[in-house]
Amino acid sequence: MSLQKPLVGVIMGSSSDFDVMEGCMATLEELGIPHEVKVLSAHRTPEQTREYAESASERGIEVIIAGAGWAAHLAGVIAAHTTLPVIGIPIDSSPLSGFDALLSTVQMPPGIPVATVSVGKGGAKNAAVLASQILGLKHPEIAEKARAYRKGLTENASGRIDSWNSRNS
């Protein structure tokens, strides 16, 4: 991450969520998107979470990514206290393998949206890509990096497919 002012806030409900969230942070790094990382809990530190959400825009944050497991209310609580785009990552840390976190994240009341990605590590990477697409609407250099990232995925997949097909023809 460069010394630029962060554009994305990456929030996790517990330090135990880091294993999943590190894919999000690595993808933001790969895309060159400055970000900050915090551990905040909707249930254990509700006032700090509210204060973070309410002050994010003033500090230059343009998108918030929030990952949590179990009763994953973190993204929804943040969305209730900001009009910034909030992307929720359900984390598969409970006996229900993240299904509870998915429902807690995606089922929001009208007017308080959370853009929810898939459960777990794939969702964490997709949250970073979605953030790049949102930021790319305002920041052409991020839009270009997002296009290059997507092109790299396509080229990588095409190479693997061609290799597979040539071995199995």
**Total of DSSP H or I helical runs spanning 4+ residues:** 6
Share of helix among residues?
Answer: 40-55%
Bulk shape: globular
Structural class: alpha/beta
- Rounded to the nearest angstrom, the radius of gyration is 17 Å
Number of domains: 1
Pattern of helices and strands: EHEHEHEHEHH
Task: Describe this structure as you would to a colleague.
The protein has 169 residues and is α/β, with parallel strands linked by helices. The chain has one domain (8-167): Rossmann fold, CATH 3.40.50. Helices cover 49% and strands 15% of the residues. It is built from 6 helices and 5 strands; from the N terminus they run E-H-E-H-E-H-E-H-E-H-H. It has helices spanning 18-30, 46-56, 74-80, 99-106, 121-136, 140-167; strands spanning 8-12, 35-39, 63-69, 86-91, 115-116. A 5-stranded parallel sheet has the order 2-1-3-4-5, with helices on both faces. Strand 4, helix 4 and strand 5 form a beta-alpha-beta unit. Helix 1 (18-30) runs parallel beside helix 5 (121-136), helix 2 (46-56) crosses helix 3 and helix 5 packs across helix 6.
